[in-house]
Protein: Pyridoxal phosphate homeostasis protein
Amino acid sequence: MGSGVDRTAEIGANLKAVEARIAAACQAAGRGRAEVTLVAVTKTYPAEDVRILAGLGVRDVGENRDQEAAVKARECAGLPLRWHFVGQLQTNKVRSVVAYADVIHSVDRPRLAEAISREAVRAGREVTCLLQVALDDDPGRGGVRPADLPALADAVAAAGGLVLGGVMAVAPLGEEPGKAFARLAEISRSVRERHPGAAMVSAGMSGDLSEAVACGATHVRIGTALLGRRKPFVR
Structure:
C-alpha cells in the first residue's frame, strides 16, 4: 500500500514542477497558461500511473505504441481522459487506434489519412488529426516534407470522420530546438491561412518545452519529467 502512496506523491511533485515550468515559459512568452495543454506521455508506465495523473487533474494522456495503449485505454475507460496517439502509426493498427484515440499526432501521408477516415466513419467517431512535419531529412523519424504539407492538409480537412487539428513536430537531433520550433510556427501559420481552425501546434518535450512554448506550441508532450526515466519496453 505504501508504494502506491509514494508513487502518488512522486508524480504529484513532478507534475507541480512541470506545471511551474510551463507557467514560467508562458509568462516569458507573454501567453496565458490556458493556451498550453499538457499531454502526459505514459508509454512504458502502467495504467495505475494514468489513474494517479487523472486523480491529480491531468486530462490529456499520450501513448506511442498501440499494443500498450489499447490495453491501457480499456483499463482506464471510466476516467475523464482525452487520449492522444503520438507515435508512428502503421495502417494495420489504425482500426485499433481509432477505437480509443481522440487525437492522432502523427498523420504524415495520404494513405494513412484515408485509413483513419475510413475507420473513424465506420466507428462513428470523429478523430482530430495533427500533421507531423519533418523538420529534418531523417525518414526514420516520420513526418511529411513541408512542400507536401498543403495537399495533405486539404485531404485531411475534406475527409469524413476527421478534423484537421494542426501540426506536430519533433525537434531534430543536434539542432537548437528554438530554431526548429520557429520553423514549425511559420509552417503552422501557412496551414492556418487555408484552414483557420487548424490552430493546434504539438511541440516540445521534457527537455525543450520552454522553447516550444516561446514559439507558440499549444500542446507539449511530457513523459520523463512527469514519470521518470523509462525502462526498456519488453514485449
About this structure: The first helix runs from residue 2 to 29. The beta strands are 37-41, 60-63, 82-85, 103-107, 127-132, 162-168, 200-202, 219-222. The mean pLDDT is 95. Residues 2-227 form a domain with the TIM Barrel fold (CATH 3.20.20.10).
